[in-house]
């Protein structure tokens, strides 16, 4: 299958599971299909205010049932992976910034400037990084930094 047909199938999967994702309290970030031998690997990425392994496991079971009932993958065997956004995944939506208020973030601006600071207030147009207001349209890439606390 070509990339275009894989994207079309991924879009069909997205449409078929969107209500399940919302009902589970998550936002659907991405659906990606990747060949894996004779199978197709279906990778679903979600985000939410609170994402835990139990919630992901429940969603995975529901998604699997839906995919089987609606036969979206045309009886092709598949493996299913349902996971949350990784800690190193770039912040691309205002909701990503909101969910990370107070966290340390490294930002590369469109003008080439690099900044590091804590996320403060966030709205749909931008965020405050320490005492500096950033507009999202001026941010090229932003990634939360992993911080390790002092040993007790």
Question: What key phrases describe this protein's structure?
Answer:
5-stranded antiparallel beta sheet, SH3 type barrels, alpha+beta, 3 helices, 152 residues, 36% strand, GMP Synthetase, Chain A, domain 3, 2 domains
Fold and architecture overview:
There is one protein chain. This protein has 152 residues and is an alpha+beta fold. The protein has two domains: 3-84, RimP-like superfamily, N-terminal (GMP Synthetase, Chain A, domain 3), CATH 3.30.300; 94-144, SH3 type barrels (Roll). The protein is 29% helix and 36% strand. The chain has three helices and eight strands; from the N terminus they run H-E-E-H-E-H-E-E-E-E-E. The strands form two sheets. Strands 7-6-5-4-8 form a five-stranded antiparallel β-sheet. Helix 1 crosses helix 2 (53-70). The model has no long low-confidence stretch (mean pLDDT 91).
